[in-house]
Amino acid sequence: MKFRILVVDDEKNIREGLAAALELAGYDVVTAVDGDAAFKRFHKGDIDLVISDLRMPGLSGEELLQKILGEIPDFPVIILTAHGTLETAVQAMRLGAWNFLSKPVNLDHLCELVKQALANRELVLTHRRLLEEMERRKNFNAIIGSSAALRKVFDTTNRAAPTKASILVT
Length: 170
Fold this sequence. Notes:
Elements: E1 4-8, H1 12-24, E2 28-32, H2 35-42, E3 49-53, H3 61-71, E4 77-81, H4 86-95, E5 99-102, H5 107-138, H6 148-160
Parallel strand pairs: 1-2, 1-3, 3-4, 4-5
Helix pairs in contact: 2-3
């Protein structure tokens, strides 16, 4: 699976440097100059991970994190900052950041965090897909019929489905 990462930083050299390093690691990378542009880009729905600076003009990295997690609670966001303190790191983690790194960024460490975050993202997406498949199969859409007898069969099987009971439909 090819993952797409959104890198958000108002400093051009950092934004482009991170993008180049992540592309060399095999990821598809898009960039944004600020939080507002990043949130618009995020809404296209093809982003798997966001790496954002904490302090930016307009929508800050903290506000971007809150907006993203307000829409998709388990979405991975890594926060970067040149003004890293223990308090800001704790606040970002409490808000739901996947991780928090101080600038200058150790690229090897960042790539390892990205790998972990995307592995977790893949598990979450697979889990969600499997739940949807189970729900779809539970609806009996493939069975044609609407008689009272068939509805009674559907009702009985739906009640038995969450249990370990075996049933015989005759």
